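Ticket #4471: structure export looks truncated?
Reporter: QA, pipeline team
Priority: medium

Steps to reproduce: submit the single chain below to the structure queue and open the exported record.
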Amino acid sequence: METKRSRRIRHSRQDWQGFVSEFLTSGQDCKSFCRDKGLNSSRLIRWQGVFRNEISPAISQMQPVGFLDLGTLPAPEPQPRTGILELKLDLGGGVVLTLTRN
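Actual output as written to the record:
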């Protein structure tokens, strides 16, 4: 019976820097990204730590997300109260909290 031994591909430091940079901008979680790329997730996390100080400035130079000010909503006009509002919450252990508005 013949067994196949899978050979682990050795990636260079430059390769890992590319993987980490791509991962940080991909929006994927680590497990999915590594599965798609055929990488070991613990190695990606390790290299992410190695490059943290080197990659952070590059990420911070990316365009900031714009902010759209939607303004404020006008105050609602007061509505006449009609009827009684009663709310009962069963808190368990025989405790019932009752809130009533007349």
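Status: closed, not a bug. The export was complete when the record was re-opened. Leaving a note from the reviewer for reference: The chain has three helices and two strands.
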